[in-house]
Design brief:
mainly alpha, 4 helices
Length: 138
């Protein structure tokens, strides 16, 4: 048979499926790492100082952008939810602190409360997204 045959070859399918499975696994891990970075930044604000968000915020935003891109590549729209939510959280907190002109001491308690509220809503949504990302499609 000719090499430019439009008929897909049977031995190509497992390779493609394995790649997709690997990307779905990577997406689930990335969502988990994003949640851990939010939890770690929130705990650092509680036990250390509010200035920790200067490093944690960009890290969370970068992980969130990566989550969105990988969710698009794997065609899992539900998995974009945590990424969009995390970026929304970063933007909201940045604008809140900037517009209120708070310093680290003034921003500490609002960051703690916002983080607590977000973790109460973000964790269940991320669990749904991980389940949707790792679910098998036919």
């Amino acid at each position: 048979m000719s090499e430019d045959s439009p008929i897909p070859l049977a031995y190509e399918v497992p390779h493609v499926e394995a790649r997709r499975r690997g990307m779905r696994t990577a997406l689930s891990i990335l969502i988990g790492v994003s949640l851990l970075s939010i939890l770690g930044t929130w705990a650092a604000v509680i036990f250390y100082d509010a200035e920790v968000v200067l490093g944690g915020g960009p890290l969370i935003a970068l992980l969130s952008l990566s989550t969105i891109v990988l969710a698009i590549l794997t065609r899992r729209p539900i998995a974009m939810l945590p990424g969009v939510m995390h970026i929304g959280l970063c933007a909201f907190l940045f604008l809140l602190i900037w517009l209120a002109e708070w310093g680290p001491a003034q921003a500490r308690m609002p960051l703690i409360y916002a983080g607590l509220g977000y973790l109460a809503l973000g964790v269940p949504a991320s669990i749904v997204a991980v389940a949707g990302a790792s679910a098998r499609r036919n």
